[in-house]
Structures are given as C-alpha cells and as structure tokens.
Design goal:
The protein is of the alpha+beta class. The protein has 8 helices and 15 strands. It is elongated and about 95 Å long.
C-alpha cells in the first residue's frame, strides 16, 4: 500500500496548530467539493483525500498515532509499519492467538471512502469474543469473530440515503487463498455519526464449520466545507457587509436541497442565528432538523479615498446621534 502524507495533502507543516489545520481543510474542501469542482471525478477524489487527512490530523488521538510513524515517509512510497511498531496499537491486529488467521493478516476494503493506508492504521477493529465448542470429531468449532471498519458517508447520503458497493478481501487461514467478496451496503436516510451498519456473515470465518461473524461499518460523516453538524441541525456562516447588516438585505445560502433565500432584517448583529426550518438532516422520529444561518459581519480591509470620506461622515453622524443632549 502507498503511504499518505496527510500534512502534505492539507499543505501544512507537521507542527501546525489545530486552527491552521482546520483552516487549510476548509479552504481545500471548498475548492474540491464535487458541487463546485470543474473536474467532478478529480474533485471527488481530492475531496475524499482531504477529508481523510482531516479525519486523522483533526483528531488528537489519531494525529498522535500517525505522528508516531515519523516524518521520514515520502508521499506515495510503499508503506510497511516501521521497526518496533509491532507493539503499537495501530488497530489492525485484531484476532489474537488461536483465531485461525495469522496475526497481522490484512483485510482490504474498497468502497468505504477511505484508502487502504487509513484502513490499515485506523479503520479495522474487531476481536469480539468467540464461543468455542467441540465438533463430533473432537475438533474446535467456533463462530467467527465480528469485525468493524469505518465508512465515510456524505451529508447528502445522510439526507437522501444511498447504496454503496463494497468490495472486501478477507484474510484466510495459513495455506488458504484470501476470499474476495462484493456486497451492497444500504446507507439509510438519517444515518448518524458513529452509527453501525451490519453486514451479516462478512466477518471472520468460523472454525469447524461454524458460521462466520458479521462486519459492522461504523459511520464517519464526511466533513463538509461550509456546514457544521450538530445533531440533526446544520450551521452555516454567512458573511455580511456592514451596510447589509444595518439596512437589511436578501442573501442566498447553500442547503442540502439547493440554494435558499435568507431575509436579513435591518439591524442584524454579528453572531445572530437565522433559523430555516426543515433544511437540516433527517430526524430520528421523522421530519428534518433545521439550517441555522449564523451572520458574520466582514469589514473592508482597504478603502479608497472616496469611501474613506463616506466612512468618516458616517462616524460623524453616528457620533452626533449618540452624543448626550445638552
């Protein structure tokens, strides 16, 4: 598998603070989001790559584990865990002794939205307890262990639902060929961060003719370039010029159902929330959450000479209106 330099993907130094990582993600995500990218296929590929990088570098625990690999790896180089890494908890050695499958054996997934590199380090978990028994011939019989992996789900998929095709290569006991299987994964409407989707029989093979375990796909909601997710509600920062905040205006805001009109009342202040009902994510009991448009007033960095005069006049008028009467 190829090594992914997540710092290079986001264009930040390895000692970048969390705020710089977040800014870099948002800038790149806006550029490559499939809705705005000129090349849709390339935009989708880059957007997923950027999301994966932020999934790791935006999480302190994942970032710490990733940094433990060292800075000597080159992006795109063939990757194997470095010497001494066998004792580290990378999350892929899940079977334990006597599981029938060699320790460190790899599962490979295609269709989860994450790369093989991510899955190798962070995505695969499992090792739930077996219930061993005996076959009539005295051999060991035990149901296969359940396995977990991450699946990256877009907000649009959470809102509308979808079907994915998952291709997985299961490890096999020594001397046997690895199994490659294809399965359809239904992404239900309203799926949530951390929710698990069960694929029966796609876990570790059983022993002695016992049934296999199950595969559980743990949902990771794709970070969106403009929306923040809080439960079933979405939050969007709308930049306003000072005059639009004072006088009021009509603005356009994105939603998962297309552009919507937002009425900005006169005297709007920075940080004010304007709620648009039913434009969030599906609620668990039916209906939809809301889209909250949060106003951010932006001040011009530079003004021309004529504008300078007008701003001075505004300041003078505002001062006269607020000064106490004599």
């Amino acid at each position: 598998m190829k090594f992914s330099d997540y710092y290079e993907v986001l264009g930040v130094p390895r000692d970048a603070p969390e705020s710089d990582i977040r800014k870099a993600f948002r800038k790149l995500a806006r550029k490559y989001h499939p809705d705005v990218a000129k090349d849709k296929d390339e935009g989708e590929r880059r957007f997923k790559e950027i999301n994966e990088a932020y999934e790791v570098l935006g999480d302190p625990e994942k970032r710490k584990k990733y940094d433990a690999l060292g800075a000597g790896w080159r992006h795109g180089a063939e990757f194997t865990p470095p010497p001494g890494a066998e004792g580290m908890d990378f999350g892929f050695d899940v079977f334990g002794e006597g599981g029938g499958i060699p320790r460190g054996a790899e599962w490979r997934f295609d269709g989860t939205g994450f790369s093989d590199f991510f899955e190798h380090l962070f995505g695969m978990r499992g090792g739930f307890a077996r219930e061993p028994g005996q076959t009539r011939g005295g051999g060991l019989r035990a149901r296969g262990r359940d396995v977990e992996a991450d699946i990256l789900v877009s907000l649009e998929e959470s809102c509308h639902g979808s079907t994915r095709v998952l291709r997985l290569q299961q490890p096999a006991p020594a001397g046997e060929a690895a199994m490659v299987r294809t399965a359809q994964v239904r992404i239900p409407v309203g799926v949530r961060e951390g929710q698990k989707l069960r694929l029966a029989g796609l876990g570790e093979p059983g022993l002695g003719g016992a049934p296999p375990g199950d595969l559980f796909l743990r949902v990771r909601l794709e970070r969106h370039p403009v929306f923040q997710v809080r439960g079933e509600n979405l939050y969007y920062d709308l930049e306003l010029a000072p005059w639009d905040a004072v006088l009021g205006t009509e603005a356009r805001a994105p939603s998962l159902k297309g552009k919507v009109k937002v009425t900005i009342p006169p005297g709007t202040t920075g940080g004010q929330e304007l709620r648009l009902k039913g434009l969030g994510l599906p609620r668990e009991g039916g209906g939809f959450g809301d889209l909250h448009v949060v106003t951010r007033i932006t001040v011009p960095v530079r003004v021309g000479a004529e504008e300078q005069v007008l701003w001075e006049k505004l300041r003078s008028l505002a001062g006269a209106e607020t000064s106490p009467s004599s």
